[in-house]
Structure formats: structure tokens, C-alpha cells
Amino acid sequence: MRDDGSLGERNDVVLTGLNHKMGYRGTTNTLLTFGEGAHTPGGRAGAVGFLVGEEHRGLTYMFHMMNEARIGVGAGAAALGYTGYLHALEYARTRTQGRPPTDRDPGTPPVRIVEHTDVRRMLLAAKSYAEGGLALALYCARLVDEELTAGSSTDRARAHLLLEVLTPIAKSWPSQWGPVADDLAIQVLGGAGYTRDHPVEQFYRDNRLNPIHEGTAGIQGLDLLGRKVVMEGGAGLALLAETITATTARAAGTEWVGLAADLDATVARLGAVTATLWSAGDPAVTLANATAYLEAAGHVVVAWLWLEQALATGAQTSDFHQGKRAAARYFHRYELPKVHTQLDLLESLDRTVLDTPETWL
């Protein structure tokens, strides 16, 4: 833009420098300065902006872009968690160290570390996070299609409403637990995982960005509890509960009836706690622990998707199908019970953080 406002070679935006990041170094991140005085459009220091779309609709346009980006961030976080898990799995199947607790003979050759129970625990946890996050991202991608292409207006509206509720979870849950999968991958490799001789340390550094960009976890919590679960009189949360319980009903007569029953109880309690939070009469109290609400809701949703995957295995007995069942059992036994601790906190309308002044920090 020239000083007279016409298009030309001059630029009102100055590239100040590059950010030197912890990870994600394959993507350039720049520092831009607007109107620092290097150029003078209109005879004074500044930058010239152009209106895109209608006035006062900027946030609406931004969220149209942002919601799609949030699902993409969640998918990327799940993918990074998945590759970390796969690298750790391969390492654990080839690295030998130690012996079983039942074998104290020093002459016995060491076993592969995948044979140690705690290593299998870490791998199973990472698998449940990575494949659970991937299932969530793929389900939301399906809803993105269905809200535009479903055969009836009712089905399109349903997909849209469900996507509205799930989007903050789709961004935040894989972004929180994908890095945990990568953290576990480093742990499986031990000291080797902490070096650049293996890529798992890079996966962790790269993935650590995902809880930050396109809206931090805290922002997603405020969006979910402050807007999405109460929109249209709570229709979005009710639709999510209805969708989940349709799956749990299909588990009757299967080995997954226990997971289904626990999931039903947790979904019902999530709805009751949501009502309790909004009965506080003070938005500051309601939203004080919105991130805990987001984490609890995310675990409920991923537990549902693990039930869906478990049911889909049918009578198949391949290692792939058995692995899905094992991960579903892990999530049921180890992860779903954590939700109730968070719901206990939320139900109490706890003010610990709200009432802590900055001078105490």
C-alpha cells in the first residue's frame, strides 16, 4: 500500500522477527508489527485495514473459521499422541531389560520390556488416549459433513447442534491427553526417550502447543459450560445424553453391559451437576471450575466412543479387535471413575480458586 492509499510495493505491516519455539518448528511463527512508523499511509504512521464482510460480524465470521480449526487441532493432537504411542510400542517390543518378578535366576536372559506389567499399563493408557481422541475427531468430522449433507433438515439440524456441543471437547480433550500419550512414550523409552536419538521427545514438544492455540483449555471450558450446554434451553446437552444412551442401550446382553451402566449413571450425573452449577445464581461461581467441567464431560464423551468401538468389534478375535476391547476396558476401569471426583468438586460449588486473591499466589 502506498502512502496515498493506493496499492503499491510499500507494506504497512513489518516483519519484526520469528518466534523461537519449544516445538512445532516446522511451522514458521512470525512477529508482526502494525503501524510502527516505517510507512505512513494517508500521511501518518499506521496500517490500512479492509473490511471483510459486514460490519460488527467479525466474531461471527471468526468462529465459523475457528470451529473448524478447533477440530483440526484436536485431530492433530490425537495424531501426535498416536505416533508417540506407536514408536513406544515398537521400542518396547524390541528392547530387553529385567526379568519377571517370578524369575529371580540371574542366569535367565532379560525379557522384552513390553512383558513388564507397568510398561503394558503405560502403553494401554497411551492407546486409550490416542485412539479415543482420534475417534472423537473422526466423529466430529462426520458431523461437519452431516450438517451440510444429511438427507433431511431435521438430521442436518441435529448434526449441527451436536457438533456445537462437541467442538470445545474435540479441541481440548485430545490436546490434553495426546501430550500425555507422548509423555508416556518418553517414559517407556526411559533415558533414551529424553534424548534426540529418538523422535518421541519431539512429538511431546510439538504436541504441547495444542492445549494453547485456537483457544486454550480454559476458554473451551467457558465455551462449553457457559454457552454450549445451556444453548436452546439445554437442547444440546440433552441431545448428547440421548445419543450416548442410545449406544448404552445397544450394550444390553453383551460383555459391555457394565461399562454401559456406569456410563449411563455418569451421563445422568453430568446433567444434574450442570443444573446445580447454573442454579448458583452467580455466573462467577458457575464458571469458576469450568475447566474441571470440560475435563469431566470430555471423559464421558470418550468413554462413550470407546463403548461404540467395543461394540463394533462384535465377535472378531484378531489382535486388532482384542486390542480395542482391552483399551475400552482400560478406559472403563481406570479413566471413567475419575469423572466422579471432578463432579464432586463441581457439585459443591467450590470457591477455592475464586476466593484466592492474587497476593496469595
3D structure, described in words:
With 361 residues, the chain is mainly α. It folds into two domains: 1-48, no CATH class; 59-347, Butyryl-CoA Dehydrogenase, subunit A, domain 3. The protein is 61% helix and 3% strand. It contains eleven helices and two strands; from the N terminus they run ββααααααααααα. It has helices spanning 58-94, 117-149, 153-189, 200-207, 217-228, 235-250, 257-278, 283-286, 290-312, 319-335, 338-347; strands spanning 13-18, 30-34. The chain has a two-stranded antiparallel ribbon. α5 (217-228) packs across α9 (290-312), α7 packs antiparallel against α9 (290-312) and α9 (290-312) packs antiparallel against α10 (319-335). The longest helix is centred in the N-terminal third of the chain and has 37 residues, at 58-94. The protein is globular, with a radius of gyration of 24 Å.
User: Architecture of the largest domain in CATH?
Assistant: Up-down Bundle
Summarize the biggest pleated sheet: 2 strands, antiparallel
Broad CATH class of the largest domain: Mainly Alpha
Strand content: under 5%
* Unreliable spans: 1-10
Query: What is the number of independent domains?
Result: 2
